[in-house]
Specification:
This protein is of the alpha+beta class. It folds into 3 domains: about 260 residues, Neuraminidase (6 Propeller); about 180 residues, no CATH class; about 70 residues, no CATH class. It is about 30% helix and about 40% strand. This is TSPEAR protein.
Length: about 625
Amino acid sequence: MLCRSHRFVELQEIPAVAVSHLTAFSMNGIQHLAVANQFDGRSYNIESKIYEWNDASSTFLEMQSIPTKGAIDWEAFSMEGTQHLAVANHFDGSSYNVDSKVYRWDDASRIFLEIQSIPTAGAYDWAAFSMDGIQHLVVANSGNGSSRHVDSKVYKWDDASSTFLEMQSIPTKGAHDWAAFSIDGIQHLAVANLGDDSSHNIDSKIYKWNDASSAFLEMQSIPTKGAVCWEAFSINGTQHLAVANLHDDSSYKVDSKVYQWHHVAYTFLETQSIPTEGAFDFTAFSMEGTQHLAVANHFDDSSHNVDSKVYKWDDASSTFLEIQSIPTNAARNWAAFSMDGIEHLAVNSGKDVRSWSLAALGGYLVALSVPIFMAKMCQQAGSYSEVPLKKVQTQRQQAKQLMELLGLPDTFSGARQIIKQSKYVLAVKMLLESGMLYAMEAHQRAILVGFSAQCGAGTLMPLKSSECPSMAETAELPACHALLAANALCEADAADDDGGCVVPKELDNCADFDVYKIVPLACGAIGCQALSHILWIAALVSFGATIAWNAGFYASSLRKLQPDKWQRLWISFTALFAFLASLLVTTTFVGFAGGSAAVLAMALLCPLLPVCAWVMAAWLASLKAKVKGSK
């Protein structure tokens, strides 16, 4: 995400597997992202990724894959002018006692090469800091599988051996994060203790370097509730700390806290309580000279679909005030970085399943159950407990003949045997294929058309956010005009360029006076309305054919079930499919408008045909069959 008009808008979605942490760093003047992948659904022994910013595509592109074991965190630091990375390997599928790794950038091979393997116990975080000109690392060991009472370690770089050597062991309780900071030139460390073996409501600790003992000594103990992160930052020259509280043993809806260093009391005092929902991370960054905080909300006691928040420091109230709420799914951390003078935020968030996907999936599962449901209902319709045995046998035989007549299986085994010849199975197959095609193409069309507008000889497209002029340059319309190329126009005069040119609200991306450019229509170009309409029509034809097929199939079944009454029942049957067809036509026109309305209409339409199939199947199965020879 990048900040435009004092709001963060989405810039890129990076496909990843169970991302646990994002770390931003700059190397050779180019922005990079290190992504820690924890678990792919099958194994913890998977690869984590390093991405590099590419100016040509204005996206992050993968540059290296590194094997990791349940990776939770990357820490980036520079030592002797060379970029280094440390990865916290948490779990390998069988043990928490796994080695974490340190890597160094190699210019010759242009990759990160492993330089050291360090034994860790459920490592959750690395923090790097320099003290007396020497690089240090501290690891948060969260537990060994049997207890959270394990020591975390501080390491010091040793030039002689070219390795990090352990210099101190600090008792911790489910340590999840370290924050390193300096007060009055003295190094400090804050550890976030998640909890002991019985409770999350325990103290987290702050340590201060002591020259006499050459060790970090405890300076302050702060009550926390499932603390998972400390973030250190300075406001007006005063040190602050923010702690992300995850859970208090009963709820994830707990307040996280902001603390300020008090020189007189020589301690950190609480200055603000911020409501959070399973807060997993705080990230501090400065924008336009003002301190900001971004919190990653993970869970609200019922759902992972919770908004994460961005806060801005307010001098008048001496507090952080919310400025933006960003939809996220099981967010675990934010990474803040600046490119080309624009502030960016990267968040690791689970992919939200869109409404049309859930609706369609539910409808498809219903449709798959219909054949067996019909068979069982027909079988039950031919059997009564309070009739003579001979009549029961006769009715069962008639039911069997009926199922054979309709091509319906009475067991899943039977369904497999006749899958190649059953008309019903073929109908369901068509339903699945065309319904999926409809959903995909309609969604694609909403993306293509909903975010473009046809204007004269081309398609009006917004400039890339990185190409947007500054707020000062767009303060007045004449200033905006001065920036325009021959094929561009400003938001305020877009309608004057062509009477039929309408700029959708979704195109707002450059403050009050957005800048657009005319892109010539090309059949393969993103935003090509001709192409998107073809896809839309093809999907509708496919979906309409499925309606016709199912209508024909059920009409045939109805005629066989009720040969003497099917014409009367056909009226009700036709009304159902006529209603569905009218919805299809309505959605067609709504879809041509593009945008969110089309997506919503498609979300409602996708499951209707499978649901109608269920209703029709239940209705047909409940009818008394008229088989030849029956009275």
